[in-house]
Design a protein that fits this description.
It is a single chain. Helix content is about 50%, strand content about 20%. Helix 5 packs across helix 6.
Length: about 270
């Protein structure tokens, strides 16, 4: 019993000695950590608001504000460790070695993040633009550090790793997409009338973009028809609906105006030996 009491007394004395020796350091370290977290959050929110007022991309704004927040918290942790006389040099060396080894395992994800940061900073496209890259096309819904999210007219969500975008040929048609159509008329028909009819149809369609004037003209001379080509811009989300409606309207209008749409013809000559 006496030994147990002695052990308890020694434990109490040790705790008292620790509190006397390191109490202020512990309290100071906790206060520094709390202040560091509070200051980091405040500065991050301040930077985010300033960037939003300057109309800087939201993804870049959040990324930079979070970086500043993390740096302030890390600085507070370094100061807190210094209260206990702990040097951080060995930790930095170990962290550097670990980062060097992890860089090989994380080469793919890290390349996506670096590519995403480059996209956000250079802004080759923004949310709402229509882009074609890496064999896919769609409207940009979100730009993340790791990937870019697209949607097409069918509502399909397309996720492209950012490293697949950087270094590739990128087509950006803003929020619109070009439609290219062609229809053949007979050589007996007046191409001026056909061009005028197609221009009138495009001017009356409310989904055809009016900022870029449609182009209608003779595209080529076929074996059995004069090919009338027409190009116009439509919102990407209405690409197929508008192009199908315009094609039907062009076909009906040409028929109503007695403009012949010929089918391919071939003259076949049969030679026989007597």
């Amino acid at each position: 019993m006496k030994d147990e009491i002695t052990a308890v007394q020694k434990l109490v004395e040790t705790l008292i000695e620790f509190c006397v020796s390191y109490g202020f350091q512990v309290v100071g370290a906790i206060v520094i950590l709390i202040l560091g977290a509070a200051v980091g959050n405040w500065v991050a929110r301040l930077i985010l608001r300033m960037m939003q007022k300057k109309s800087i991309d939201i993804t870049l704004s959040k990324f930079l504000s979070n970086i500043v927040k993390i740096l302030i918290i890390v600085f507070a942790v370094i100061i807190a460790l210094g209260k206990f006389g702990i040097t951080i040099a060995p930790f930095i060396a170990a962290l550097g070695a670990a980062a060097f080894g992890a860089s090989f395992a994380l080469q793919g994800p890290l390349s996506n993040y670096s590519a995403g940061l480059l996209i956000i900073m250079t802004r080759p496209f923004t949310v709402g633009n229509t882009i074609s890259v890496a064999g896919v096309s769609g409207v940009v819904e979100e730009i993340k550090l790791a990937c870019t999210i697209l949607t097409d007219e069918e509502g399909e969500v397309i996720t492209i790793p950012n490293k697949k975008i950087i270094g590739e040929i990128l087509h950006n048609s803003q929020e619109n997409k070009i439609v290219q159509g062609v229809i053949g008329i007979s050589y007996d028909s007046n191409p001026d009338n056909a061009i005028s009819i197609i221009q009138d149809i495009l001017s009356k369609n409310i989904d055809v973009n009016t900022e870029n004037d449609p182009i209608v003209g003779i595209k080529s001379f076929g074996d059995s028809s004069i090919d009338i080509g027409f190009r116009y811009w439509v919102p990407t989300v209405k690409y197929f609906n508008t192009s199908y409606a315009v094609n039907l309207a062009v076909f009906n209008a040409l028929n109503e105006n007695n403009i012949d749409i010929p089918f391919p013809q071939r003259d076949v000559r049969i030679l026989s030996k007597t």
